[in-house]
């Protein structure tokens, strides 16, 4: 597929099919696109593209539509992503700037991404395992119960109740200072190592309290059950049911299973800044007629705390979708860092 002209033909077919949902014929390409060659040459190029598996004929006497392989070639050949318009950028910044906490900003993010792309938007909560501690607060609740509040650098707030007897306010005060000194700015596994020796600074009588608090912090920062996602725009997918030749049911069922989405996002976590899985490239069979476009946020490409993205039919506007996902991820990263 080194022929630049055939690549131009493939681009034209993808653009036209995404816009119209109609199979594309050689006459359409001649009339709508300035490809600089004769209709006979275009027909030969389309035949070569079909032989290579980049386009297919859905039924006899119809034009051609892109295959998963054709979409992949189209996406891989995108030289650059077009920037969002100034109104779109202002809308993102205004909406996220008004958020009051992490839960609010993630809900706003998925709604915004669904509106921008007209697809299903999904945002993964920041992983505690990749988060650093911003502050730990210890709040005595009763004479034998202590509330441990852990605030991370990306805005997550986790609470754990520790049962110890007794709760000495003076010891709690000293422990609060020492546990923050050992924890702030640290991620696992460094955090675990720094907390391990904290009990040595306290008397044997006070060590059970210290160990209970440090155990709660370590267990919270490494536990798996915190992994979850927020979604919006399922109605967009339902309106696109014509783009799923077989049935949209399995796709909707996959969206309901958070573990499926979390696994897919995890599989893409080491990919490039904007990653695209097309059709059968998805490991989950129910999504064989869908595409997933994601990007990491909250850190560098290889050190993002989580991912966000959109899911829709393979017949999607990839350049615009990829640009929107990248832009929203960058704005969200800046918001969390502020």
Low-confidence stretches: none
- How far is the first residue's CA from the last residue's CA? 46 Å
Alpha plus pi helix count: 13
What does the overall shape look like?
A: elongated
CATH superfamily of the largest domain: GAF domain
How many strands in all?
10
Radius of gyration: 26 Å
Largest sheet: 5 strands, antiparallel
Average pLDDT over all residues = 86
- Helix and strand content put the structural class at alpha+beta
Could you tell me the strand content as a percent range? Answer: 15-25%
What is the CATH architecture descriptor of the largest domain?
2-Layer Sandwich
Q: Would you tell me which CATH topology of the largest domain applies?
A: Beta-Lactamase
Spatial order of the strands forming the largest sheet: 7-3-10-9-8
What this model shows, in words?
There is one protein chain. The chain is an alpha+beta fold and 338 residues long. The protein folds into 3 domains: 4-70, Arc Repressor Mutant, subunit A; 86-126 and 227-337, Beta-Lactamase (2-Layer Sandwich); 129-222, Enolase-like, N-terminal domain (Enolase-like, domain 1), CATH 3.30.390. It contains 13 helices and 10 strands. Strand 4 and strand 5 form a beta hairpin. Helix 2 (26-32) packs across helix 3. The model has no long low-confidence stretch (mean pLDDT 86).
């Amino acid at each position: 597929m080194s022929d630049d002209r055939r690549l131009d033909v493939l681009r034209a077919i993808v653009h036209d099919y995404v816009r119209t949902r109609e199979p594309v014929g050689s006459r359409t390409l001649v009339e709508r696109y300035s490809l600089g060659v004769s209709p006979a040459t275009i027909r030969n190029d389309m035949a070569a593209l079909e032989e290579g598996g980049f386009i297919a004929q859905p039924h006899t006497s119809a034009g051609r539509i892109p295959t998963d392989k054709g979409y992949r070639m189209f996406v891989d050949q995108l030289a650059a992503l077009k920037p969002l318009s100034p109104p779109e950028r202002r809308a993102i910044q205004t909406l996220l700037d008004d958020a009051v906490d992490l839960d609010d900003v993630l809900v706003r993010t998925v709604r915004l991404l669904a509106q921008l792309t007209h697809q299903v938007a999904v945002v993964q909560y920041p992983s505690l395992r990749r988060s650093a501690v911003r502050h730990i607060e210890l709040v005595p609740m009763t004479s034998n119960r202590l509330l441990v509040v852990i605030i991370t650098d990306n805005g997550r707030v986790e609470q754990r109740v520790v049962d110890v007897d007794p709760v000495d306010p003076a010891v709690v005060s000293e422990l609060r200072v020492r546990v923050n000194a050992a924890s702030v700015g640290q991620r696992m596994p460094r955090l675990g190592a720094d907390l391990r020796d904290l009990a040595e600074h306290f008397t044997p009588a006070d060590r059970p309290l210290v160990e209970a608090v440090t155990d709660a912090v370590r267990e919270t920062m490494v536990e798996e059950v915190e992994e979850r996602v927020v979604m919006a725009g399922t109605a967009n997918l339902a309106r696109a049911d014509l783009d799923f030749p077989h049935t949209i049911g399995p796709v909707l069922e996959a969206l309901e299973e958070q573990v499926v989405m979390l696994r897919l996002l995890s599989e893409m976590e080491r990919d490039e800044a904007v990653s695209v899985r097309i059709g059968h490239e998805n490991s989950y069979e129910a999504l064989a007629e869908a595409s997933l476009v994601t990007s990491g946020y909250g850190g560098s490409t290889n050190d993002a705390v989580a991912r966000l993205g959109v899911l829709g039919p393979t017949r999607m506007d990839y350049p615009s979708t990829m640009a929107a996902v990248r832009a929203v991820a960058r704005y969200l990263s800046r918001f969390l860092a502020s």
